[in-house]
Design brief:
Low-confidence stretches: none
CATH topology of the largest domain: Rossmann fold
Order of helices and strands: EHEEEHHEHEHHEHEEHEHEHEHEEHHH
CATH architecture of the largest domain: 3-Layer(aba) Sandwich
Strand order of the largest sheet: 3-4-2-1-5-6-7-8
Radius of gyration: 21 Å
Number of domains: 2
Strand content: 15-25%
Distance between the termini: 10 Å
Number of helices: 14
């Protein structure tokens, strides 16, 4: 039976970096299964709201919104202002464009207020997908300001409790997220559903041509603290290369917005001829395909959501050699060191392993070929959106 579902994203479309890739994957798989799917997303770059339809037939509503992230560089304040403003603009938009949906899904917890207000108007069922660990975010950003941290964390917990108690279903993309919600919010336990991130294995395919032999790849969405720390670790790796007099490499880094890159990293980029930095690319696929190694250097102790896991799945599906810390593969069952990826304890070990793989290419070739073959196999067998979406459809019953 066809079901009308609205997915409310908090990142601007089109976005091929971070969480919106998960939204796109869920939308495409549900649409292919026969459901009526539409997406609402904030729009900063156009002077008027816009509706367009994707090639496969999914309507995307681009809702005009002031660029809060561009004006306020304090992420916590930006996210609070965004949540309230977005809710207001979403309500006004769909009040004007009369639409009805049986289900309204919030991308993480930041778009929940929008989903909740709209669901009241439309009498829809609310789903939260991959709820970000908001109190961890507050802790990380405000840990130096004890009083502000305490107050903000209190309101963050209140907001989380409100969201989890009033939603009908909560989809988590990792067991860590399930454990967090069930431990801290007892009333939400029966609403939880574990659905890992997935990947379109047709779009993210193995390239027919050979990758550039010593090319590295990294992408992230800024200014989220986990990604900022990972980006910083990328440049620690490059600095380590310099101490070892290793220069036989190149790296492509793709971010959502160049203006969010910290000044110290901008200096590093300008001073390193091996680095190519890109933004707002139409697709990640060709950039992953042309690279030999994909780096996932997330920081120890940081809680990660769907974004980092999507980076791993994209690389697995393209049959790449992945070097990741444990945090980078958290929630992706089947990732096994030296079988389908390379596990590194920190950025320094990652740098050492990259140098060894590149300097001793001939002796490592069989190992590299096995990793690439097994990576693609894992993506096809366990993480295709087509198979994962069956668990999602149970929520719609």
């Amino acid at each position: 039976m066809k079901t009308a579902i609205l997915l409310i994203a908090y990142e601007e479309f089109p976005s091929f970096i971070g969480i919106s890739t998960r939204v796109s994957g869920i939308a495409s798989a549900l649409f292919a299964a026969g459901h009526n799917i539409e997406i609402a997303a904030p729009c900063y770059s156009h002077k008027q709201e816009k509706i367009h339809t994707t090639a496969e037939g999914i309507k995307i509503h681009q809702v005009m919104l002031p660029n809060i992230f561009g004006k306020y560089k304090i992420p916590v304040i930006s996210m609070i202002l965004f949540s309230f403003l977005y809710a207001f603009y979403i309500f006004c938009y769909f009040r004007k464009h009369k639409r009805t949906f049986s289900f309204v899904q919030s991308e993480q917890i930041y778009a929940f207020l929008s989903s909740w207000i709209l669901s009241k108007k439309l009498q829809s069922i609310i789903i939260i997908d991959d709820p970000d660990l908001l109190t961890y975010f507050v802790d990380e950003k405000l840990k130096r300001f004890k009083i502000i941290n305490f107050i903000t964390k209190y309101f963050a917990r209140f907001y989380e409790r409100f969201a989890f108690n009033t939603s009908n279903s909560i989809i988590c993309s990792s067991k860590a997220s399930v454990d967090y919600v069930s431990t801290n919010y007892k009333g939400a336990q029966k609403k939880l559903c574990l659905i890992s991130s997935g990947i379109d294995t047709i779009e993210f395919s193995v390239a027919k041509t050979q990758a550039i032999k010593n090319k590295l790849f990294f992408n992230c969405s800024l200014p989220y603290y986990q990604n900022m720390a990972a980006l910083s670790n990328i440049f620690k790796i490059l600095k380590y290369f310099k101490t070892r007099n290793f220069t036989d490499y190149s790296i492509t880094i793709i971010v959502n917005n160049l203006s969010y890159i910290p000044d110290d990293i901008v200096l590093e980029i300008n001073g390193n001829k091996h680095v190519r930095i890109l933004s707002a690319v139409p697709s990640l696929v060709p950039h992953i395909q042309e690279s030999k190694f994909v780096l996932i250097p997330f920081e120890k102790g940081h809680s990660t959501t769907a974004g980092p896991r999507l980076k791993v799945l994209e690389a697995l599906s393209c049959g790449k050699v992945i070097l990741s810390t444990p945090e980078g593969i958290d929630g992706i069952e089947g990732c096994v060191g030296n079988t389908n990826m390379i596990l590194c304890s920190d950025y320094k070990e990652m740098a050492e392993k990259i140098i060894d793989l590149m300097k001793n290419r001939k002796s490592n070739q069989e190992f590299i070929n096995r990793l690439q073959k097994n990576a693609r196999k894992l993506a096809e067998n366990s993480y295709s959106w087509t198979s994962l979406i069956k668990a999602y459809e149970k929520i719609l019953v």
